[in-house]
Write a structure and sequence with these properties.
Strand content: 25-35%
CATH superfamily of the largest domain: Medium-chain alcohol dehydrogenases, catalytic domain
Number of helices: 10
Radius of gyration: 20 Å
Structural class: alpha/beta
Length: 348
Amino acid sequence: MKAVIADGQNGVEVISDAPKPTPEKGEFLGRVIRVAFNPIDWKTLYNASIEKGTVGGTDFVAVVEDVGEGVDRSKYIGATVSGWAPGPLDGSNAAWREYITLDVNLVYFVPKNITPSQAATLPLTFTTASQGLNQYLGLPLPPTDGSKNSAQQKWVLVWSGSSSVGQYVVQLAHHAGYKVIATCSPHNFDWIKKLGADFTVDYHDPNVVEIIKKATDDSVFYGFDAASFPETSTLAVKAFSSKVKDGKLINILSSPPSPRSEVKIIGIIDYSLFNREFNFFGNKIEPIQASYDHAVEVYKKLTGWLQEGVIIPNRVKEFDGGLQAIPKALREFASGKHSAVKFVVRID
């Protein structure tokens, strides 16, 4: 079986003798037809400390060919599903290979109204967005009966609204009934507003904090920093309302000190939803049952949200060529010379 692995020289290579996995109890075996890139893919594989031979890849779309014990064959065999695997943090269960196995509860069925490439843009970053906004901040998920959540006067600030995570945070916050203000580059303003932002701000503007406060009438009470750099989190916290008593800003991976005591920065790690422990370059990531339960609930509802147009996938930059195309495409992705698009490689 072909797979893409770390080459031990801060790069990746394609091999043809990787072992084909076998589904265990509660799992499926799928033939991978699409993979999408996330920053963790290149940041872990382009790293001298990663073990040579580690298989890469997180987001995938696959056609189910077999299932393990306890899985309804009539429901899954032949179905097209999408999810994300632990990837480089667990090289034995990663997406950049011809076949993949995973817990059937951690994938969603791809609806007919979106393409496999669009489907590949969702799993990891949508999970991250929902984990932060819905699980940790407690904002309601979009209804599944066509109704709408009650409108709120409070604002949610999304820093880096045009990132893959940010685009899904904007949509989830909008459907939660909150007003949304997002930072991004001006050329992405229209797209981010289409996704649900009420106001967009150029994050390059030296007066970005003051602009946010004025646009929201000093009413930002929740925030999500999808960039999660120390400087972006600091600016985001400063933009919170002067009236806030218990503000919360979601940060991906870490919980840096907050410049305001009344605003807490909450670090989230989406790998906690897997039922095992990970070592993230010396930092232990332990499983959290609530994160698994939340992911299962979200994946059950995601197919319907996509069918109804409640959730819009990221825009796609697609690469042909199968697994052999990944090394070159990954280098382009790592260069950072792209905006508001998800890199997807066709494997079939």
